[in-house]
């Protein structure tokens, strides 16, 4: 009898457990918030960001697309120039100062050993030292050769700076052009509406038109800053080349000056 009671009670207990499990499963399936909370936030935010970028490009029109392309070109050029300057190190002075010190002391062979021809300023310095140590070389021809090499090295450092200048100049102008076109379209919509003018149409057209100007300035400002900085670095390299070559050519004169001053002091004493 007890066994029959147990068998009779078992189906109902199993049925109750199954119903409870199905109810829990149904609640999970019916509540999408639980699934949304279980997903990473980055996964949910990525489509929203992509949609906003797409809307931004569609509202800006072809002008924004052109500005975006110009910004990509500008970033690529800036990365190339930074890599070039970090590799060539045109403004490094440690080896130059040591070499010039040895040159003024008369240790000309040791001065040449301190320099590396793969660097721009040191290449010009080596050519000048070799020419001055060779008595058969005409000084006028040596100066012409130094000018040629220095101009070539500086031109290499100035490479790709002109495209940056063009992008910095055209970006705000393109943004202004997009603004003018957008304003024309907004006023055309107002004229087409006649007496039933909706202020929201005008305000919407204006902010869409001003968007291109904002994008143009956003592209131009950092490009102008980087271009000016790189131009200044090239100017400093040119001044350094001129200073080093002048010191090499005037080193005998500068070496004689202390002797003249010491004699004057002896006579005064």
Automatic annotation (TrEMBL):
One of its GO terms (biological process) is protein import. Residues 129-241 form the MotA/TolQ/ExbB proton channel domain. The chain crosses the membrane at residues 63-83, 166-186, 206-230. Signal peptide: none annotated. InterPro entries: ExbB/TolQ_transport, MotA_ExbB_proton_chnl. It is a multi-pass membrane protein. Residues 1-20 are annotated as: Disordered. Belongs to the ExbB/TolQ family. This is MotA/TolQ/ExbB proton channel domain-containing protein.
């Amino acid at each position: 009898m007890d066994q029959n009671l147990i068998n009779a009670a078992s189906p109902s207990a199993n049925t109750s457990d199954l119903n409870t499990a199905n109810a829990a499963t149904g609640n999970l399936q019916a509540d999408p918030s639980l699934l949304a909370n279980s997903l990473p936030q980055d996964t949910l935010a990525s489509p929203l960001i992509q949609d906003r970028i797409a809307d931004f490009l569609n509202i800006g029109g072809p002008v924004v697309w052109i500005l975006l392309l110009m910004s990509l070109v500008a970033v690529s050029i800036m990365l190339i120039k930074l890599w070039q300057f970090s590799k060539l190190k045109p403004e490094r002075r440690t080896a130059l100062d040591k070499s010039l010190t040895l040159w003024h002391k008369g240790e000309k062979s040791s001065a040449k050993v301190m320099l590396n021809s793969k660097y721009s300023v040191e290449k010009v310095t080596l050519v000048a030292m070799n020419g001055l140590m060779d008595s058969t070389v005409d000084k006028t021809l040596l100066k012409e050769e130094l000018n040629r090499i220095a101009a070539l090295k500086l031109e290499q450092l100035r490479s790709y700076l002109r495209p940056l200048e063009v992008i910095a100049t055209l970006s705000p102008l393109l943004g202004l052009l997009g603004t003018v076109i957008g304003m024309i379209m907004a006023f055309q919509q107002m004229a087409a509406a006649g007496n039933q003018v909706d202020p929201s149409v005008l305000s919407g057209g204006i902010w869409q038109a001003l968007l291109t100007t904002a994008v143009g300035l956003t592209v131009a400002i950092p490009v102008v800053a980087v271009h000016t900085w790189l131009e200044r670095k090239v100017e400093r390299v040119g001044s350094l080349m001129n200073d080093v070559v002048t010191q090499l050519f005037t080193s005998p004169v500068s070496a004689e000056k202390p002797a003249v001053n010491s004699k004057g002091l002896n006579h005064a004493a």
